[in-house]
């Protein structure tokens, strides 16, 4: 199998459903400013005080109001009201407005048809009304609905999106959960599951939200609030490491060849001035660095070699310009708590299914294991992949207690290769 470094620069990812491509090759504008971002991996609990307080405290005093963009949701009013109620429960007493930007009607609001808000992003009056907004929140749902309503036909900014960027540049905080996380990067993952992304060619037509759970990889244009990398969400529960790596194989700019996978009920608080992000919440941030990786050039039988993977926990910080991690706890190397030959293979019977557990307990805190192999495959077609995690001289691990006596691992610079395999399953004789 031939591996190549990524060399060609992508001018823009153009999909007919999301944004029409023009001869000018319009791209999503990348925001630059003094504000901050709060990127939540979905399934945000109402009692996650660290995340809600980060949003509230991130608002500048001179911009005291909050605006909610409900476009992604199939029940836009319901989920906007839920976020409003959560803000109130965490002490926010300022003005909160729900912007009239949506694609789907919310059946719970009989007097309003929210589907008539499709062109709300083009409303100049709504845009002008954002001058005193210090917090902008994108609810979850379908990320293509956000880009559909806030990008114009050429892929440029609508008036409302331009106004959001202006507030961000003035110091506002822009946050979002699930779909509201996916739109943060310039290149957006619109659909696909990991196994399909790694064993089937990508597609350029969106088949609906079901394709986010089971479908081939679809990449599109995001809003570019985060100036570096590609964001993925629901990362732990939906096992999205594979699709994030496949997405990184499709981008060419060195600044984009970083993947940020955010777990559920977890956020990264991004300081745009400092070029850093801090992990908040119950899960982890996975940083997949493909800047030194090589990828096989086949559409099918995708393979990758020499990626670097880090898994950061609550309180850890990542500085992307310096490629530096701040992690707490004691180093595992030379102080390993375990010494056993870890099982290699696949399936529900193997321990430590989460990535932080796997690389923490089974690899970096285990003196007898330097490599872990995990397989994923379709038992109907036999197509599959091998994930090979390797501990080398660059790899570092940190352990501490999290809440109570919960083991909390931070993992830095584990090498990752992904290789195609063919698997046949038969009953034992």
Question: What's this model, at a glance?
Answer:
With 429 residues, the protein is α+β, with helices and mostly antiparallel strands. The chain contains 10 helices and 22 strands. Strands 1, 9, 10, 13, 14, 15, 18, 19, 20, 21 and 22 form an 11-stranded mixed sheet that branches. It has a 9-stranded mixed sheet with strand order 4-3-5-6-2-11-12-16-17. Strands 7-8 form a two-stranded antiparallel sheet.
Proportion in helices: 10-25%
Report the CATH topology name of the largest domain: Rossmann fold
CATH class identity of the largest domain: Alpha Beta
| Structural class designation | alpha+beta
Number of strands: 22
Number of helical runs?
Answer: 10
What can be said about the biggest beta sheet?
A: 11 strands, mixed
Taking the alpha carbons of the first and last residues, their distance comes to 35 Å
Full CATH superfamily name of the largest domain: Class I glutamine amidotransferase (GATase) domain
**Parts with pLDDT < 50 across at least 5 consecutive residues:** 4-27
Number of domains: 2
User: What is the CA-based Rg, rounded?
Assistant: 21 Å
Report the principal-axis shape: globular
């Amino acid at each position: 199998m031939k591996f190549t470094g990524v060399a060609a620069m992508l001018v823009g990812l153009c999909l007919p459903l999301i944004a029409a491509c023009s001869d000018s090759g319009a791209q999503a504008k990348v925001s630059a400013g003094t504000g901050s971002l709060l990127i939540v991996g979905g399934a945000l609990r109402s009692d996650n005080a660290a995340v809600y307080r980060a949003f509230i405290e991130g608002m500048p005093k001179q911009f005291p109001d909050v605006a909610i963009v409900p476009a992604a949701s199939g029940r836009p009013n319901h989920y906007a009201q839920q976020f409003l109620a959560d803000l109130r429960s965490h002490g926010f007493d300022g003005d909160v407005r729900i912007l009239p930007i949506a694609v789907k009607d919310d059946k719970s609001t009989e007097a309003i048809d929210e589907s008539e808000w499709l062109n709300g992003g083009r409303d100049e009056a709504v845009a002008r009304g954002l001058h005193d907004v210090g917090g902008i929140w994108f609810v979850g749902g379908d990320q293509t609905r956000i880009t559909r309503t806030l990008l114009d036909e050429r892929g440029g900014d609508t008036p409302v999106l331009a106004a959001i960027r202006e507030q961000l540049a003035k110091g506002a905080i822009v946050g979002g959960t699930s779909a509201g996380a996916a739109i943060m990067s310039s290149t957006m993952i619109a659909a696909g599951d990991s196994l399909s992304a790694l064993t089937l060619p990508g597609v350029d037509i969106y088949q609906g939200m079901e394709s986010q759970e089971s479908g081939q990889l679809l990449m599109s244009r995001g809003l570019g609030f985060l100036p570096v990398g590609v964001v993925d969400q629901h990362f732990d529960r939906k096992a999205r490491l594979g699709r994030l790596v496949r997405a990184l194989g499709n981008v060419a700019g060195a600044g984009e060849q970083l993947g940020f996978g955010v777990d559920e009920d977890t956020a990264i608080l991004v300081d745009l001035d400092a070029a850093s992000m801090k992990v908040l919440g119950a899960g982890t941030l996975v940083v997949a660095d493909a800047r030194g990786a090589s990828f096989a050039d086949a559409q099918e039988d995708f393979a990758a070699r020499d990626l670097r993977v880090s898994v950061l926990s609550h309180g850890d910080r990542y500085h992307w310009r310096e490629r530096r991690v701040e992690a707490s706890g004691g180093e595992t190397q030379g102080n390993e708590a375990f010494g056993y030959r870890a099982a290699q293979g696949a399936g529900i019977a193997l321990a430590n299914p989460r990535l932080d557990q796997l690389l923490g307990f089974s690899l970096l805190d285990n003196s007898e294991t330097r490599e872990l192999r995990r397989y994923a495959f379709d038992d109907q077609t036999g197509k599959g992949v091998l994930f090979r995690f390797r501990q080398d001289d660059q790899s570092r691990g940190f352990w501490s207690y999290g809440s109570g006596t919960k083991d909390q691992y931070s993992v830095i610079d584990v090498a990752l290769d992904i290789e195609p395999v063919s698997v046949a399953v038969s009953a034992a004789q």
